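Section 5: illustrative case.
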């Protein structure tokens, strides 16, 4: 449990509590245009991988006394210790749940930041890697796809190789229309970092280590020389996101052979040493460029680059992320000042070195929960709850199955009342919403999910009083073991929530439809609605850290 004012948040049938706090100087209101998270804990968890001179996990099993931990230069007493040998699943276990001692694997295919050919190369390499694994994977894995407008879970945690391969096969290339246009660099960076926030939120409370294997370049590098003082806001956003990841015990491994790294970052040493010290442009410290190389290093992961063996890189990443010790300590610094605290872990044995997260932010007494994080936690909790949420009125109709795509398509009807309409300077009424589409098991475990940002516009004087419903066509994946689909709609301010469910019987009895997507699907554009209202899906994030 966290010290001071604790906030309990439930994620996807998990029930551990944690605090999120946004740093703001005393007496000063936080800038609403600057996303910032601050997370801390009274017990600091360190998942430590020990490697030898060749950069491979050390074969010798170590003990608690082989490690020395310092925080901000001061040695800390190790509170607890788990040897690496216990972080494995039993050979005969069929359990898909990631709540055990073995590390969970999160594969992310980056369709937002990679050209079609690069994306396809990475997808096929991931397929080849998974195909070479045993029928029952050695630990649970899930598959996510970052697209032009959303992060989507294509396959929830599973140990079935067949299920994971099916999910990879169903992910098709799409034109990354924001790629190659500098005006979209800031937006793509925000979307990519926000995807990491969503992943951390989903995995908070899962007790073991989680490793993200990001197949693709990640967000673009934002150069300090170009952005100047505006990049200070981005640094705060990046480091607070890193803090959320490490607090959730998530490490980032970036796998993208075409990634160009500046020559001055190439140091003499083993391939692993070079990879870990790589920077794109200049992202050393808090004044350099902003990119995924920085996040990988800070979370104890690795950035692979300039290599053509993607499947081998995935294997190396999984090896580094699977052989680890878990150490905890209670910081001797009890100041709740919100400041960054660097961590160093040394191994006493010669020739060995430790890879782990590089630090965390302390709790700030003046902090508050970040709005984006609050919305994500609310939607995830509502999705896995057995209770209906009726603050917003929803209903579903016209359910169609698409067996070839393992999905279903349906129409959602939204009552205009209570959507949080705001009048613009042009006299229109707008409402900003977040919609989550989730597939659930019989025990309410989330098997797949997709978050969409939706914008409503109306020319009516009083949209709340209109009788006509807004309608939009949605698609949900139906992974194996799906027993129901739940759609969650929340106002973007984290206020009102509505849910609607589709049970298994309705899915099974629905007519079969062709595999082509509906033109009214928010992922493919927007369609005019009656009574002067329109439902739209604006691309990209709602908030830009670089906005002044």
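Designed sequence:
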């Amino acid at each position: 449990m966290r010290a001071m004012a604790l906030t309990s948040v439930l994620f996807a049938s998990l029930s551990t509590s944690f605090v999120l706090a946004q740093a703001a100087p005393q007496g000063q209101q936080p800038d609403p245009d600057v996303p910032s998270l601050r997370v801390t804990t009274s017990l600091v968890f360190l998942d430590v991988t020990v490697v030898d001179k060749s950069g491979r996990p050390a074969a010798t099993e170590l003990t608690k006394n082989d490690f020395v931990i310092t925080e901000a230069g001061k040695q800390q007493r190790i509170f607890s210790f788990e040897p690496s040998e216990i972080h494995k699943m039993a050979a005969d276990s069929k359990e898909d749940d990631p709540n055990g001692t073995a590390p969970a694997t999160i594969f992310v295919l980056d369709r937002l930041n990679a050209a079609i050919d690069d994306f396809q190369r990475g997808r096929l390499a991931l397929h080849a890697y998974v195909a070479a694994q045993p029928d029952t994977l050695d630990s649970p894995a899930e598959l996510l796809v970052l697209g032009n407008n959303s992060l989507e879970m294509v396959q929830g945690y599973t140990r079935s190789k067949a299920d994971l391969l099916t999910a990879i096969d169903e992910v098709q290339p799409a034109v990354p229309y924001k790629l190659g246009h500098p005006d979209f660099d800031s937006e793509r960076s925000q979307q990519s970092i926000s995807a990491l926030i969503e992943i951390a939120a989903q995995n908070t409370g899962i007790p073991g280590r989680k490793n993200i294997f990001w197949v693709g370049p990640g967000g673009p590098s934002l150069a300090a020389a170009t952005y100047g003082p505006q990049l200070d806001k981005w640094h705060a956003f990046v480091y607070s996101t890193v803090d959320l990841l490490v607090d959730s015990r998530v490490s980032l491994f970036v796998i993208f052979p075409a990634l160009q790294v500046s020559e001055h970052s190439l140091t003499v040493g083993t391939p692993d040493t070079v990879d870990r010290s790589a920077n794109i442009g200049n992202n050393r410290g808090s004044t350099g460029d902003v990119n995924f190389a920085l996040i990988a290093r800070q979370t104890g992961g690795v950035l692979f680059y300039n290599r053509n063996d993607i499947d081998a890189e995935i294997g190396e990443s999984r090896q580094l992320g699977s052989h680890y010790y878990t150490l905890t300590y209670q910081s001797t610094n009890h100041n709740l000042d919100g400041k960054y605290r660097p961590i160093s872990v040394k191994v006493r044995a010669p020739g060995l070195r430790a890879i782990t997260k590089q630090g965390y932010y302390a709790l700030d007494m003046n902090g508050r929960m970040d709005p984006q994080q609050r919305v994500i936690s609310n939607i995830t909790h509502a999705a896995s709850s057995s209770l209906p949420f009726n603050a917003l009125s929803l209903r579903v109709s016209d359910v169609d199955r698409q067996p070839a795509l393992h999905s279903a398509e349906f129409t959602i009807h939204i009552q205009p009342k209570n959507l949080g309409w705001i009048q613009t300077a042009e006299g229109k009424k707008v409402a900003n919403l977040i919609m989550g589409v989730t597939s659930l098991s019989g025990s309410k475990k989330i098997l797949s999910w997709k978050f969409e940002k939706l914008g409503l516009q109306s020319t009516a004087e009083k949209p709340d009083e209109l009788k006509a419903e807004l309608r939009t066509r949605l698609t949900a994946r139906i992974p194996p073991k799906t027993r129901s689909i739940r759609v969650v709609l929340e106002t973007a301010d984290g206020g009102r929530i509505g849910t609607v469910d589709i049970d298994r019987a309705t899915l099974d009895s629905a007519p079969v439809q062709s595999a082509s997507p509906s033109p009214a699907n928010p992922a493919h554009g927007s369609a005019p609605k009656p009574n002067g209202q329109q439902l739209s899906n604006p691309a990209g994030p709602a908030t830009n850290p670089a906005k002044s």
